[in-house]
Amino acid sequence: MKRLEASGSPSMTSAPAPARHCTPTPHSRLLIPLTPSPPHPFIPLGATEMTVFLTDADVRAAFEWADAIAALRSAYAAPPDETRFPARTMARGDGLWLRTLSGVPGDGGPMGAKLIAASPRHRRASYLIPLFDQESMELTALLDGHSITGFRTAATSALAADLLAPAGPLRVGVIGSGFEAQNHVRALAATRTLSSVTVFSPNPASRTRFTRELADLGLPLATAESPEAAVADADLVVCAARSRDERPTLRQAPAGVTIVSIGSTLPEQRELATEVIARAEVIVADMVDEVAEDTGDLIAARKAGIDLAGKVVPLADVVSGRVSGRPADDPDAVVIYKSVGSAAQDLAVAAMCTRRAAQLSLGTELPVTISPVSK
Fold first, then answer.
1. I need a labelling partner for 319 at 20 to 30 A (CA). Which of 49, 120, 144, 349 fits?
2. Which is it for the CA torsion 197, 198, 202, 204, positive or negative?
3. Residue 261 class from Cβ within 10 Å (0-12 exposed, 13-18 middle, 19+ buried)?
4. What is the pairing mode between strands 364-365 and 52-54?
5. Nearest alpha-carbon partner for 116 in 81, 74, 148, 77
6. Taking the CA of residue 175 as centre, how many other CA atoms within 13 Å lie in the half-sphere pointing to its CB?
7. What is the Cα–Cα distance from 285 to 339, expressed in whole angstroms?
């Protein structure tokens, strides 16, 4: 692990410097009170660990699908508590947005958040994940969250698909050919046996690139010229084409299919036609309220008069066994897993990457950190 030294300052391994007493000025920022009484309400506790920064390259080097899926299974098996993972917040202005997902895991893992700053008109975004130790409140890690976002989405989908899809080898149809779509195939291949994978993308070159970049998996890969052809014989359909308008990309669903839908996370985004939503016996959601209220697909379904009452269930209930995601008495039932993403996923995968990075000596120790205070 690399260590950065601040110019003219000691290494973070040095003991904290003793408090200095000085005459205050209008611009003083004193961390220790000049006199012992009355006590200052914010007393530094002193950091005992260095903050580690993981670049996107560090995250990708530390990541393992099996470990991520295991971490997510553990996270979703914890007793449900909505206050631990509140709904995401979104600040918007001047065509920009800043999204925040935060959480305090119930398994004792690091608490933290993911911040996403985005400019849709410029098609640019940045992701930051800070992790804090639940005992000491120390800032233990800062991570570039770009790849983690794709990894955690696909790993959670694989966890859900393993529980919802029929037993045995799976024929997979994929709509979309980019980063998210490829990650989903890799995550599924780490979880289940895939007998075939067929991809559709509007761009033939993208379809070819998809098969070329996944060739290392040794799977039977094929391309299709329409969404209908890609999903015609599928047991499992992955919709991973980032929606930029209100036109659904999947308009029909074969009997008995399990659908993973990740591309409609905002009111203006569509992925599944209302006919597909209407056919679903169960819709499993990573965040029930957000999926039901904030995704374009389910907003459109309600406007079309589709009754969603009792149809949308939490992924946590399926993982823990509190509910069965797929009806046992109906092999033709259509089941949907719908994801908007959550801090539970980000934090579980970020913590796993941080642990593995330490084992692999990846990352950079920062020369400064945030000192916890007594409050």
1. 144
2. positive
3. buried
4. antiparallel
5. 148
6. 28
7. 6
Q: Has residue 85 got a pLDDT over 80?
A: yes
* Mean per-residue pLDDT, 19-25: 38
Candidate CATH numbers 3.30.1780.10, 1.10.274.10, 2.60.40.420, 3.40.50.300; the one for domain 48-148+345-374: 3.30.1780.10
β-bridge pairing 194-200 and 170-175: parallel
Q: Confirm or reject CATH 3.40.50.150 for domain 149-342, answering yes or no.
A: no
Give the strands of the sheet with 221-224, arranged side by side: 221-224, 194-200, 170-175, 236-239, 258-261, 334-338, 280-285, 312-314
DSSP for residue 336? E
222 forms beta bridges with 198
How many Å apart are CA 283 and CA 301, to the nearest integer?
12
Which residue carries 């958040």 as its tokens? 113
Beta-strand ranges (E) seen in the chain are 2-3, 43-44, 52-54, 89-93, 96-103, 111-119, 124-132, 139-144, 170-175, 194-200, 221-224, 236-239, 258-261, 280-285, 312-314, 334-338, 364-365, 373-374
> What pLDDT, in 10s, does the model give residues 186-236?
999 999 999 999 999 999 999 999 999 999 999 999 999 999 999 999 999
What is the pTM assigned to this prediction? Answer: 0.85
DSSP conformation letters of 7-20: TTS--TTSPPPPP-
Of 371, 361, 375, the residue nearest 2 (C-alpha): 361
Mean of the per-residue pLDDT values of the chain: 88
Identify the burial level of 14 via C-beta atoms within 10 angstroms of its C-beta, where 0-12 means exposed, 13-18 middle and 19 or more buried: exposed
Using one digit for the tens of pLDDT, what is the confidence trace for 277-317?
Answer: 999 999 999 999 999 999 999 999 999 999 998 899 999 99
